Amino acid sequence: MTPQVKPSARETRRLQTRQRLLDAAVAEFKRVGMAGADVNAIVAAAGVAHGTFFFHFPSKEHVLLELERHEEAHLAEEFARFLDSTHHLTDALTEVVHLVTGLEQQLGPLLFKELLALHFSPSRPTKDDWTDHPVIVLLVREIERARGDGAVHPEVDAFYSATFFLLGIYGVLTTTDRVEVRDAMLLKLVASAVRGLEIHWSVNERSVHGLSLGDSSLRRRVGRHHPDHCVLVLDVLQHRNVLIRNGRALGCQRDGARTQLRCCGGRPE
Angle 134-139-140 (CA atoms, 0-180°, nearest 5)? Predict the structure, then answer.
């Protein structure tokens, strides 16, 4: 284990000055926005010289970048802690909504919109990849986990699904001011996202999904819903697909990756 090196007194003072500038700049941005922020007001509030601001931050946009990294790290830490607990995909998506809306309330609508604008700006001071943003990385992994568990359609692209979901949250928060309307829209966003990700079953198929073939009620229910059809059913406990006709198992196919229940249509050969 590598011992931690204690920062020098000079480095400690530098970090303290940088933090004071960041706090003063964020307060000014909340008040008048980044474009209208006065650097003189920021350095006065931080108690430093005018040139000190630009020593730490080449531009006001760099302040937003620092704020973004800090807040993303905090959100990712909270989200990772949540994911360590027992949960379903719906719970995870709801938690993302909770974390992002909490950030918007913390920063205020003006600063939150400017943070998003810089995030998606083609003139962003630094170039990075989606893997540099820990929240979407965690969300992609969560969707991949659910896909591996069979809760999400096997053809779902986890990255695009996570991206579109986050964009949906941002869109609601930046275009809708009424709290009750926003809450309703965000609830629908989660529900729509889950419907788009999950495997779709017909009413009759859903009635047998999730039961073991050892459960006699499964055979009765399949025979009742499909008396003259062969039905390929996923035995979720044995990770196999089983052909059923008139409530009787005719044979099985080992295929743990196949997760859709399909009706063969017509009588078996």
Answer: 100
Average pLDDT, the chain: 79
Of 197, 232, 253, which one is at a domain's C-terminal end? 197
Q: Tell me the pLDDT tens digit for each residue of 115-154.
A: 999 999 988 888 889 999 999 999 999 999 999 999 999 9
Rounded to two decimals, the pTM is: 0.71
Number of domains in the chain: 3
34 lies in the same domain as 155: no
| Residue 96 to residue 104: CA distance in whole angstroms | 12
Query: For the residues 102-118, what does the mean pLDDT come to?
Result: 95
**48 and 63 within one domain:** no
Domain containing 23: what range?
9-57
Closest to 113 in 3D by CA, of 64, 148, 165:
64
Same domain, 88 and 174: yes
What number is the average pLDDT over the span 102-108?
Answer: 96
